[in-house]
Amino acid sequence: MVTPIVTTVAASPAHGFSKRPLPAIRLLAGFGVVGDAHSGVTVQHRSRVARNRMQPNLRQVHLIHGELHDELLGLGFAVAPAELGENVTTRGLDLLALPRGTRLRLGPAAVVELTGLRNPCIQIDHFQNGLTRAVLGRDDAGNLVRKAGVMAIVLDDGTVSPGDAIEVRLPDGPHQALSPI
């Protein structure tokens, strides 16, 4: 079995779509990525702030599986890590199949807990026309599949860098599939 790894880490101090790849990011428990516009105890995504700025931030860290970039390249889209707004790009881990509450140790100390799926928005098409449709699919039963990554909260502080191993800890009890948040 291949150990899943972090391939890219990124942040952006300004609200925007893409983030800037960095040599490392620092995660703070209950806050998110230091220096990223989406970090904070309460929601920081502009559309959510407009609805209720006091709701808890369940979207402190955005993770995307690098295999999505491969899939998009095969469809004719040129999308590099961090360009879809993710803080952490992974490889060797089916993020979308993990249940809610899964904990990921990223590197030696940082731990995040998965809270839900990223719900693709029109900003993806503003980045590249037709990309929204490419990050949406249907399963065998015809249900909508959102492939634009997962969201998480930070449980334990730590620095995360490309090449760091990822340890997966599934939650106890019956597993609940990730849903859009």
From TrEMBL:
It holds the Pfam family MOSC. It comes from the Bacteria. One of its GO terms (molecular function) is molybdenum ion binding. Residues 20-169 form the MOSC domain. This is MOSC domain-containing protein. It comes from Zavarzinia compransoris.
